[in-house]
Design brief:
Layout lengths: L13 E2 L2 H9 L3 H7 L1 E5 L1 H9 L3 E6 L1 H6 L1 H4 L4 E2 L2 H7 L8 E6 L15 E4 L5 H13 L4 E5 L8 H6 L9 E5 L1 H10 L3 E5 L5 E2 H6 L7 E5 L8 H4 L4 E4 L11 H16 L11
Parallel strand pairs: 1-4, 3-4, 6-7, 6-11, 7-8, 9-11, 9-12, 10-12
Antiparallel strand pairs: 2-5, 3-5
């Protein structure tokens, strides 16, 4: 049985049963995540946000992991040893905290409505990139993130971890048909902008002429090949990010951060950081 954590850490509910460990192990596979509507959240930040949203079904921790985050385990945790945690976790050096959470993406048929821009990820294959885009979308007030068919699983452990808990904050539509999504958005009066290094429109110009202050959706392409011509043709404008240095391009997550910041700034020109003292 795992050893006791620090005296100031809540006692574990008990050792994790073989059945509970087996349930967690199953969620490492996409087919089981999809079938069960559950995922694994690893690390203090992801666990904290899942707990705040009331999505955690079971929290597994090593004594050392519990000791490092006593506030996260105070409502109950199941103890596992380092070997089991290493088997279940997705990181090389596990934090010692792993939550089984209820979570399912929104159905792909109808893109969600709401204030803030939308982000459409077209065939993004890298889970870390997708998680970072979701985190950026959350940070800059996007209404939702849509992933198209052919994209990485949104509930992939690497995606969940890279989102730093933002996955639990906003609607995520998975496996959508891109053409149908764009058509539905246009019916809602949304302008679809594709981030493209060779675009004919400049991001700064669209901020200045008021385009970014309206209802917009940003279309982001694959990390390696960008947007195929057929997908580019679906957008209302192809938009380039102005660059003054010698870099050939920006990676996907950085480009997402830039366009989403510009859009949020245009939509909220008088925003003041609540943490600012000036």
């Amino acid at each position: 049985m795992p050893t006791r954590a620090r005296p100031d850490v809540a006692e574990p509910t008990g050792p994790a049963s073989a059945g509970l460990i087996r349930s967690a192990r199953r969620l490492r596979l996409r087919k089981h995540r999809s079938a069960e509507g559950r995922l694994l959240a690893e690390g203090p930040q992801a666990v904290r946000e899942a707990l705040a949203e009331g999505l955690v079904e079971a929290l597994l921790a090593t004594p050392e992991g519990a000791s490092r985050a006593p506030s996260l385990v105070e409502t109950g945790w199941w103890a596992v040893d380092e070997k089991v945690m290493a088997e279940l976790a997705d990181t090389v050096t596990p934090s010692g905290l792993l939550a089984i959470c209820r979570w399912e993406p929104c159905p792909p048929e109808t893109p969600p409505e709401g204030r803030g821009c939308l982000v459409i990820c077209a065939q993004i294959r890298d889970p870390g990139n997708l998680g970072t885009v979701i985190r950026c979308a959350d940070a800059f007030g996007a209404a939702a993130v849509v992933t198209t068919k052919g994209s990485v699983d949104v509930a992939n452990p690497k995606t969940v971890r890279a989102s730093a808990g933002s996955l639990f904050h906003l609607p995520i539509v998975a496996d959508a048909d891109l053409a149908a999504t764009v058509t539905a958005l246009r019916r809602q009066g949304v302008t679809v902008l594709a981030a493209d290094g060779h675009g004919d429109a400049d991001l700064n110009d669209l901020a200045a002429d008021g385009t970014l202050a309206g209802r917009v959706a940003w279309l982001l392409g694959n990390e390696a090949w960008g947007l195929p011509e057929a997908d580019r043709a679906l957008a209302d404008r192809l938009v380039r990010i102005p660059m003054w240095g010698r870099a050939e391009s920006l990676n996907l997550a950085t480009a997402a951060a830039v366009v989403l910041y510009a859009t949020a700034s245009a939509a909220q020109p008088n925003y003041t950081d609540p943490g600012s003292t000036t």
